[in-house]
Amino acid sequence: MDSHLAAAYREDRLQRLVAPLQYLATLALAEFPDWKAIALTGAAAAAAGDRAGVRDSCGNCHAAYRAQYRAAMRTRPVIAANPGRRP
Ligand code: HEC
């Protein structure tokens, strides 16, 4: 994933997470049914300045899918899926 996400979160620049999280939602795959909803919930929380809500979104997706994503898609890093749109 993009370290920019972690940096923006750490520095409390939640507005800078809105677009990346919306973009992340578009990367949803059939194998990960809740992916899109989790990412969009995070984007809405970021837009609202809700830091705890953003953290829940990051955490929920990682808990649900990170290990599985790595196991199944080692050759498809999240960002490399569309480098031209790197936020
Ligand atoms: C919709 C799912 C989803 C959301 C939401 C999400 N992540 Fe991730 N994240 C992933 C996946 C999948 C990986 C593993 C990607 C990989 O290994 O290529 C990951 C990995 C990471 C990593 C590890 C570094 C790396 O390159 O693997 C960091 C740091 C990270 N995410 C930060 C965040 C932060 C901060 C947020 C919230 C602002 C967030 N993520 C929200 C799915 C998500």
Q: Overview of this structure, please?
A:
The chain has 87 residues and is an all-alpha fold. It has one domain (3-85). The chain is built from 4 helices and no strands. Helix 2 runs antiparallel to helix 3 (35-47) and helix 3 runs antiparallel to helix 4. The longest helix is centred in the C-terminal third of the chain and has 22 residues, at 51-72. The mean pLDDT is 83. The structure holds heme C. The site of heme C (HEC) has 21 residues, from helix 1, helix 2, helix 3 and helix 4.
How far is the N terminus from the C terminus? 12 Å
Give the C-alpha Rg. 12 Å
Give helix % range.
55-70%
Strands, total number: 0
Task: List its traits.
0% strand; globular; mainly alpha; binds heme C; 4 helices; 87 residues
Write a concise synopsis of the structure shown.
This protein has 4 helices and no strands. It is mainly α and 87 residues long. The protein has one domain (3-85).
Walk me through the topology.
Elements (H helix, E strand, L loop, with lengths): L2 H8 L4 H11 L9 H13 L3 H22 L15
Bound molecules: heme C.
